[in-house]
Amino acid sequence: MEKCQNSDIMTNMKKKDELTQKQQKIFAIVPIALFATLFLFICTVIGVPMVRFASEPEKFRIWVKECGIFGPIAYIGMVILQVIAAVIPGEPLEIAGGYAFGAVNGTLLCLLASSVGSIIVLYLVRRFGMRLVTAFFPQSKLQNLRFLQSSPKRTLLFLLVFMIPGTPKDLLCYFIGLTDIKLPVLFIICSVGRIPSVVTSTIGGDALGTKSYLFAVVIFAAAFLISVTGLIIYNSICKRHNKE
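^ that's the sequence the OP posted. Answer follows.
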């Protein structure tokens, strides 16, 4: 009789443990699902119209001027949103920033916003881990970057890859959050690494704003060639290390 009772107790304890594990999985999945739903809503309702608006730099500049002191704040908010919602392209906003604020101010505002956005991304990834990253990026893209996690020179490699124009900065920002590199170092990498691409875009936007069309064409053509070359280098680095 006692054996039966002990068996029943053990069975009930196992069921409770299984229920607890199931609850833990649900509690782990629900925040990611809610975040992904919110992310999709923001991209559809805010992100797409925002990029379309930024793609018309003259209208964007007029709107910024009409906003007064809130213009730069609104722009910073847009760039922060773009960094977090990685599928939203950043180039139109960078060009619009140079067009509306000039090369210097546009670059500073864009870098400031990108840094804040990167901090938020890094915090979210450290909080929710791989589940969050895989909600936005396919496993194949993450697999290509595995060598960066295990390399003894990964900090330097991350910085170099980040600074190459044409590399997927937002993917890298999410992925680097999965490492155990200290947050201040990650912040420096994600901030400094964006400088080359941001500077070329804002200078090109400023050239359009001052009607220096020939200079703008030269800047954008050079940026395009550098980005294509950088993307080829990035892909070759990933392939070579993954083969090894």
